[in-house]
Every structure is written in C-alpha cells, then in structure tokens.
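agent> fetching stored inputs for the FE2/S2 (inorganic) cluster docking request
agent> found them:
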Amino acid sequence: MLTAARNEMLTRVGPGTPMGELLRRYWQPIAGASELDANPIKTVRLMGEDLVLYRDRGGRYGLIDRHCPHRRADMAYGWVEDTGIRCSYHGWLVDQTGRCLEQPYEDTTSPKPSKAGCETKAYPVKECAGLLFAYLGPLPAPELPVWEPFTWRNGFREIVLADVPCNWFQCQENSIDPVHFEWMHDNWGARLRGNDNNVAPKHLKLKFEAFDHGFIYKRVREGQSEEDRYWTVGRVALWPNGFYLGSHFEWRVPVDDENTLSVAWFFMRVPKDRGPYVQERVPTWVSPLQDETGRFITSHVINQDIVAWAGQGRIADRTKEHLRSSDIGITMMRGRFFEEIEAMAAGKEPGGIIRSANEAQCIALPNMAREFNTEGIPLADFDKDPILRQRLKEFRHHYGQPPEVRRAFVEAMGIPG
Ligand code: FES
Ligand SMILES: [Fe+2]
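agent> prediction call returned; pasting tokens
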C-alpha cells in the first residue's frame, strides 16, 4: 500500500514531475520506422507533450513541438522536404534540431532576416532494429542501448503498438508479476476456451533479483524444478519501463498520466535450413483493444494483460491495495524508483544509463532462448515444442495481426499458408 502522495510520485509523468524527469533520462521507443513509409509525419503524445515525428527527404528523423513556432499551427498538416518539415500555414521550415531554416515572407522582403529566437522544441530520434527511439532529457543524450536481440540475424521481426487507456506504472508492475501467468493467461485463458477447471501448474516458489538493467524474476511451478530455465535464468523486468521475455520486448511508454503506448518488438528465428534470411523492413501494426460492443478483446496474451492494467482504473489507487509475498518484486521495483528519484534530486545520474558507445553496442540480458534465437533449429523440430508449434500456427501475443504480416511471416518461415 502507498500513500496518495507516493502514488502520485510514481504515476505523474509531465515535464517537471519527479517521475517525468526520471523517465526523460532514458531513450523511449515511440514508433516503428516502417510507420513513416506511407506518410512521413506522425503525431505523437509523449509524457504529456504533443509532438510530431517525421522523416525528412534526406532520411533524417525529427521529433518537434506539434505547434509551429510562428503562430502555433499544427505541424502534422505540413510536409517534409530535403532538410526538414514545412508548416502549411505560412511556409516556415524547421529542421530536426528545432532550428527555423526559412521564413518565406521575411526571406523575400528583408535583406537579412533574423531567425534568432524562433527555434522550436526538438528531441533526438534514433532508429534501431526497426524501432524509433526518442530522448526527451537534458543533453548530452546517453547512448542508445542496443540490446543483444537487436543484433540477431535470420529473424522475422514485427512491431505491435496498442493504445492502452491507463497510467504506465500499472502496466510496468505487470513486468514483475510472475503469478499472473498462472491465473490470467492459464486458468482464465482455459475458461475463455470453455474449460471449467483450473488447469495451470501452481507457482511454488519465487525469487526476485536486482541487476543494472532492472530485475530478474525466477519461479518454480508444479512439474518444474530448480534446474529449469525459469529458475536458473528467469525473465527480465527491464529498467525503467520494459519487459524482456527472451524472444520479445514490451515497453510501457507514457503518453500522459492516464494513457500508455504499449510497444512490443518480436523476433522469430527462421528455421535453420531457411537462412540466410534478410528482412528488408520490420512491419509495424496496431492491435485493436476493444470489440464492436466496447468490451475488451480477451483472446490474446497481451490483450489479456491489458484487461488487467486498464481494469485497475486510469491511475490505480494504491492506497487501497493489499500487497502479499507474491508482490515482493513490485515492492522492490517501486523502492528503486523512489531511490532513483531521490538520487536524481541530489544531482546524481540515474542507474542503467550508458555513456560508453562501446558498452552500448550489444548488451546481453538473461535469456532462456538464446541458442534457439541465434543458432536456430530445423523446421521439423518446431513440432516437438508446444509453444513453437503454436507460434507457427498463429500469432498469440496480440489480437489483429494483419493478413499481409501473416503472409510475410509464412513466407519467411517456409511453412504452408
Ligand atoms: S503558423 Fe506556421 S508558418 Fe505560420
Ligand atoms: Fe501477462
């Protein structure tokens, strides 16, 4: 249980709030690069700030104030040129650093028009593994961490976005919540398929460990032992707002205090006999969350998670909760956020930030599936593993995979459509 003031500290993300300032120190995934192929401009709301993301004709990415520095028109209705984005109202041209390059009327009529003071807000953007990451904190920006899976080859990757109607922190608490797998995904999942029994192996033992890039949780369930990878390796609640499960990442990116962009990146190693495989573009798609009656879709794993997150309310009221031993990881994670916020207020750099380019270029994380993802296995062996067999049949993580993404997957894997 938390006081209302402590809950507010964890959940408020606007500029100047303690958590908002902490999260701004880390690169945040905000879109898929392929989203800008059809239309090079996308509106983005991030930690309470309204922005536009664009790719200019020179291939540079920009993330700038949504409103034009001239008289505040909406830059989302402008167009991109070789060196920036132009406002459609009076034609001012702005670049990715926020500099105003052209003011057409002034440039025509005055001998030396000064553009000083007309800069607009601008944040750096970097592309990695098909994702676009933005940094909203004080400069110089730290290195963008290149997690090891981003360097893997011979994989079919896809990015799935979802607009989640609640605060980011309750989503992130789910990254360190092993027991919900048993209930939400297994037992509830079985009921949704018409099975009236609790089918899931019970959790018998949990362990949570802190490391530089977050927390590792380990578990033993009925039928498993401490020899199992779920105990010897575990899974990662990635600091500060991610989740890493061996073949995919999820991030809970705050849109504002009451909304979150769920960004998930998936890797599927093509069968050993299919390589070398090169994926030209990483597809990005948006998972719908509600059916036509307005009820949440419950058929897919992350959609089920979202039922839990949104069900806790726009901002979960942590003054009314009752934490137990299954929630030790959650208490540890909250504690670390409070410590980091305090350290930052004392002028210290928060943990997990990387300043060395060398260190950032391939960061290994605990991974239960490294060999499968790097070495690969023959297609015939997929059948021996129930999870892999299922993964070939359908995309179980998010509802609504578009048919063209399925077709590209089928083609990459070399399986019958
Ligand atoms: S408001 Fe954008 S150019 Fe005038
Ligand atoms: Fe889950």
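agent> quick read of the result: The first strand starts at residue 28 and ends at 32.
agent> awaiting further instructions
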